[in-house]
Amino acid sequence: MGEQHHGLLTEIDHIGIAVRDLDAAIGFYAGLFGAELVQRERIESDGVDEALIRVADSYIQLVCPFREDSPAAKFIAKRGEGVHHVGYRVESCAEVLKLAQEMGYETVDKVPRPGSRDTTVAFIHPKAAFGTLIELVEE
Asked: What are the respective helix, strand and coil percentages of the chain, to the nearest 5?
């Protein structure tokens, strides 16, 4: 199985959920769970409006496409609304991304890039991760 690497995941950062109506989704979490909306922003590079809802030390990240060519819009068109990706916190996004590439795993990003909340992020392709799009998140 090769060399194993321990402790690179520090915690679950967020669960990304693709939605068609951001206000309705925020209302659902606020109304049913009393959840706190902690941030809302437009992420031009990804073509989505994002809302972060705090759950303990993690988040529910609601993403709503505002461009038809965005990955989230394509996801919704193909699969409908729902869980889009899982964000894992790591100490070094660059280190884990490089390790994944060295191990032959397909990545969406070749190098880390800026994410929301002043984080650094990179994605590992679902083909490499048993059908789950993984976002590496470095705070």
From this structure: 25, 40, 35
Q: Give me the percent of the chain exceeding a pLDDT of 70.
A: 98
Rounded Cα distance between 62 and 94, Å, is 25
Residue ranges of domains in the chain, CATH in brackets? 9-138 (3.10.180.10)
Chain mean pLDDT for the chain: 95
Pair of tokens at residue 112: 């880390």
Read off the amino acid at residue 63. V
Q: What whole-number distance in Å separates Cα of residue 98 and Cα of residue 122?
A: 10
* Residue 121 CB coordination number (10 Å): 21
pTM beyond 0.90, yes or no? yes
